[in-house]
Amino acid sequence: MLPISLCARRDRAGIGDDVRHRAKWRLPLDMLDEMTGTWGLPKLPVVAGSGYGDCALFRHGLAKRGLHYVVQIDPAATAHPAPATPATAPYAGRGRPPRPAYPDRPVTVKQLVLAAGRAGARPVTWHHGSRRTKSNTTAGMRSHFLRLRIRPTDRDGGTLPDCWLIAEWPPEADEPVNYWLSNMSARASLKSLTRYAKLRWRVEHDYRELRTGLGIDHFEGRSFIGWHRHVTLTVLAQAFCALLRLDLKADAPGVS
Predict the structure, then answer these.
(1) Which residues does the annotated region (Disordered) include (predicted)?
(2) pLDDT digits 0-9 by tens, 178-235
(3) Kind of pairing, strands 69-72 and 46-48?
(4) Domain annotation covers residue 91
(5) Pair (76, 178) in one structural domain
C-alpha cells in the first residue's frame, strides 16, 4: 500500500507508469538479455563482485542463459565438497515422502580451502602492467591461487551442480584473502580462471572514471528524464574515451 503522495511525486519527476521496482540481481540479467539478444553480442564470461556473486538467483540466472561466470563471494558462503551426494531416507509410509538431503552439514568455503591447505596454492601471473621495478622487471601482477570443485548450498534438496571455487592465498598471508565461484568447464586452467577473477579491476577502473573524470554523480536535477539524459551522455563520453584508447595513433584522453 503506497501513499497517494508518492504517486504525485512520481508524476512530478516524470517517472512512467511502467517503471517499477526490480531486484538488484535482475537488472544485470535484463541488460545481458538485451546485449545478447537485441544487440546480437556474443555470450562472453561474466565477472562480478560479491554484491552479485553471493546471490544464488543471479548465478542461476546466468547459468540458465548459457553464460559462464567468475564471481566473487563471501568467505562465509557455505558448500559441500564436490563428491558429496544427497541421500533419501526410507519412506515410513505416512505423510510426505522424504526429500533427498546431504548427510553432512555444509561448511564455509573458507573452511574448505583451509582444509585443502596452502600446499595446493600455485603462483599465477594474470597480467603485466606498466610499472616496472628492479624486483619486478616485467611488471607482472601475481599471487598464489588454488581451486577446488565444490557444490554450493543454495538450493532446496536435490543434487547441486558442482563448480569451481577459486581462492587467492598470498604467501605472506595467514589465510586466503579472496574467493570466487565459477561454472566454467572442469577442464579450465587455473590461470584462465584467475585472469577472469581478476578482471574486475576493469569494472572498478571504469566506474572510477565515470565518477571522477566524467561526472556521472554530478546530476542535481529532479526529473527522471533529466537523469536518463545525464547518464546517457556520460556513458557516451566514456565510450568515446574507450574508442580513443583502441586507436594506437590517437592521444590518450586528457593529453593535449
Answers:
(1) 80-102
(2) 999 999 999 999 999 999 999 988 888 898 999 999 999 998 888 888 988 999 999 9
(3) parallel
(4) no
(5) yes
Domain harbouring 149, CATH code:
3.90.350.10
1 pLDDT higher than 70:
no
Answer yes or no: do 66 and 191 share one domain: yes
Three-class secondary structure of residue 146 per DSSP: strand
- Rounded (10°) angle between helices 26-33 and 56-64: 10
30-59 pLDDT per residue, tens: 999 999 999 999 999 999 999 999 999 999
How many other C-beta atoms can be found within 10 angstroms of the C-beta atom of residue 214? 19
Contact 102, 86 (CB under 8 A): yes
φ and ψ at 169, to 5 degrees?
Answer: -135, 85
Q: Which domain holds residue 228?
A: 207-246
> Considering the domain boundaries, does residue 9 fall inside one?
no
| Residue 221: CA count within 13 A, CB half-sphere | 14
172 in a structural domain: yes
- Report field, pTM of the whole predicted structure over 0.90: no
Q: Is residue 28 part of a domain?
A: yes
Q: DSSP states of 42-65 as a string?
A: ----EEE-HHHHT-HHHHHHHHHT
**Looking at the 3D structure of the chain, how many domains does it have?**
2
Q: Return the number of other C-beta atoms located less than 10 Å from residue 202's C-beta.
A: 10
**Which of 19-33, 133-147, 172-186 comes out lowest in average pLDDT?**
133-147
Judge if 160 and 78 occupy the same domain. yes
In sequence order, the 6+-apart residues with CB closer than 8 A to the CB of 173 are none
Residue type, 114: L
DSSP classification of residue 87:
B
